[in-house]
Specification:
The protein has about 160 residues and is mainly β. It is built from two helices and eight strands. It has a single domain, classed as Thiol Ester Dehydrase, Chain A (Roll). A hairpin with a 5-residue loop joins strand 6 and strand 7.
Amino acid sequence: MRYTPSVSGVRIPPSPQMKKQKYTRNDFEHWKTLQTRWRDLDAMGHINHAAYLTFMENARLEFYESLGFSSRNSGQTDGIILASMTIQYYEQVIHPSDLDIGQRIVRVGNKSFDMSTAIFLKDHDSPVLSAIFTLVAFNYKINQSIPVPDLIRDMCR
C-alpha cells in the first residue's frame, strides 16, 4: 500500500473508497442545484473548502427528506447520522457559479452505508470535487446504531 505524507510528516493510508475515479454526471441519481454566494469565497478568491461541506450537507439532507426521513432530530426515533467523510478536490471554483450536486448510495453494510457525492459546474461533465460519506442508521431514543433500512439498501448500485 502506498502512503502519502501529511504536513506533519505522518503517513496517511489512502481511503479504499476514494480510488482515483473521476465521476461523470451519469454516475449519480439524486441532484441538487445551487448558486455560490459571496460569503463562500476565501482570501484566495475561490470558493472555500468549508463552503463545499455546507453545499453537500444541504444536498444530503434534501436526499434524506426525499426518502421520507426528517432532516432534523425533532422528535423522530430513527434517523441517519454522519460518521466520516473523505473529499478529493480537483478544481477551484470562483463566484458566481451555478453548481450541480450529484449523489448516490454505493455501499450498504449492516448498520452503515456510503454515499458518493460529486459537485459539478453547470454544463460541465467533470466534477470539481468528489466525496464519500459514511452514514450510520441511528435510533435516537436508545442512542444506538440500528440496521440500515431496506429503503436505503434497495437504492444501492
